[in-house]
Design goal:
The chain is mainly beta. Helix content is about 10%, strand content about 40%. It binds fe (ii) ion (FE2). The site of fe (ii) ion (FE2) has 8 residues, from strand 21.
């Protein structure tokens, strides 16, 4: 194995007793490049591209209570070509991260605390927290875009070298939320943002050359907390869900997410380049949804799959202080009971119908992205360790036959969201691999695993041992090498 140490960032955080600063969530501070790593099995020669995962990896001793969604953004990448793999990890040099490095301490508090704890004006819908760009990651126009769940700048990096290109210049004043969506068939990226100020939400489209070509308000009745959006070939889907900051408390400056079970879930469907007058609103059963899976059009209907929470307001976990119990329940899929669910919206009649597709507790799903916006047959979800924000395994759903198959990562082994990696010249929708980083807390090491998507029960066909143990992380993406190279060549062509 060849490892090149690049940097160790200044850090003041201690592990302490916090459940999300220990074990699989223990933060790390080194940045390295590695190649010729130990491999169990064989690195497939029939994949070409890069797997990138974002990570909430805190660096500074927190001002107030720590929540894992506050952690500093770190990207871990594994690139593949001709049966060889290279690993890299880098912190994302956000404005806040750099300022805290210079100060040698935290300057901003986290989202569960009061504004008074922050020493400078901040970012996010709460306006006083740090934009750590630690939530989501996509590759668009040949570059990485990392994003923050409460809206932020959006940071660009090179997908292969993780060279930092800084904050994206087209991002509107209102910021960009996590979960922008890339439509591989057009190269466009669709995004939204939300805030405490009217009209409370915007939606936009960036073209394949990274130009903002559409930006419109999609007004909400007040401040809301949408986390994800969806799209079909012709439409975009935004939401107004009944889980948001209590208005009276918000007027006093307190940000207390509250569930309103008597209010419906509302869905805004608009043409990709539509404006607020084109929005058709639908109402469905009350719930909260963190993540959507796919959406597509069928006749007069828009079909949307995602994870419906049966219990969006779980009771704090027992036998621990109330704040800790609330934090633990809010991160536990088995507490909020997220289940794969299908909504159908009839654009002609305005009617919405819905049902669970599975009674199993699941979240953080992926599917073959060349089917995004079109009808997909296979969905891949993660299941978690009860009580914990830790992914214990994967479940594959075949929506045509109703069959499922699954893979357990093993005792004290926790994975990440596992994107689909198409085989070069793939012959079918599931002809490829699922890829994930796994942290093994028993062996005290991390791995990158590739799993045959047509036979996930067989376990990894290839395990690459990482040069260091990495913190548990969530959202991840796969980007095909030829698409990255084509986009980067096009950009160079435009520039010359
Ligand atoms: Fe998310």
């Amino acid at each position: 194995m060849t490892v090149t140490w690049k940097n160790t960032v200044k850090h003041t955080i201690k592990r302490g007793i916090h459940p999300y600063l220990n074990g699989a969530w223990a933060p790390m501070f080194d940045e390295v490049d590695a190649s010729d790593m130990e491999v169990i099995g064989e690195i497939p020669k029939d994949i070409d591209g890069v797997y990138i995962r974002n990570t909430e990896n805190p660096v500074q001793k927190p001002l107030g209570h720590y929540h894992p969604f506050d952690g500093d953004g770190m990207l871990h990448s594994m690139s593949f070509k001709d049966g060889k793999a290279e690993y890299r990890n880098r912190f994302i040099r956000t404005e806040g991260f750099v300022a805290e490095q210079e100060a040698g301490k935290a300057l901003w508090t986290g989202f569960v605390n009061d504004a008074a704890l922050s020493t400078r004006p901040g970012w996010g819908a709460q306006e006083y927290i740090k934009d750590s760009s630690s939530t989501d990651v996509v590759v668009h126009a040949g570059q990485v875009l990392s994003t923050f769940w409460q809206c932020g700048e959006g940071y660009r990096l090179d997908p292969y070298t993780l060279e930092q290109h800084g904050a994206e210049s087209w991002v509107p004043e209102e910021g960009i939320s996590a979960h922008p969506k890339v439509d591989e068939s057009t190269g466009e990226m669709l995004f939204f943002n939300y805030s405490k100020n009217p009209p409370y939400q915007h939606y936009g489209v960036v073209n394949k050359d990274n130009e903002l070509v559409h930006y419109t308000p999609v007004p909400l009745p007040g401040p809301r907390l949408p986390h994800d959006m969806a799209f079909t070939e012709n439409y975009s889907i935004l939401i107004d869900l009944p889980y948001f900051w209590d208005a009276e408390k918000l007027a006093r400056g307190e940000h207390v997410p509250t569930y309103y079970p008597d209010m419906p879930a509302r869905f805004a469907i608009l043409p990709r380049f539509g404006n607020q007058d084109d929005v058709q609103w639908f109402e469905a059963a009350s719930t909260y949804v963190l993540h959507w899976m796919n959406a597509y059009e069928e006749g007069d209907e828009i079909i949307l799959d995602g994870y419906f929470q049966d219990n969006p307001d779980p009771a704090p976990m027992p036998k621990m202080p109330k704040n800790a119990g609330k934090l633990m329940a809010g991160l536990d899929q088995h507490s909020f009971q997220s289940k794969l669910h299908r909504w159908r919206f009839n654009l002609k009649t305005g009617e919405a119908t819905e049902k669970h597709l599975s009674e199993r507790v699941l979240e953080f799903g992926t599917f073959n992205q060349s089917y995004a916006g079109k009808k997909a047959r296979y969905l891949y979800s993660t299941y978690s360790k009860p009580g914990w924000f830790l992914f214990a395994g994967l479940v594959k759903h075949d929506l045509e036959t109703g069959e499922t198959s699954e893979l357990y990562f093993g005792s004290k082994r926790y994975g990440s969201e596992a994107p689909f990696v198409p085989r070069i010249n793939a012959q079918s929708e599931d002809d490829g691999y699922l890829i994930s980083f796994i942290t093994d807390t028993k062996l005290d090491r991390s791995e990158c695993v590739l799993i045959d998507a047509q036979n996930i029960e067989a376990g990894p066909v290839c395990t690459i041992i990482l040069p260091h143990r990495i913190a548990s992380g969530t959202h991840a993406t796969w980007a095909d090498g030829p698409a990255i190279r084509e986009a980067q060549a096009r950009k160079k062509g435009h520039a010359s």
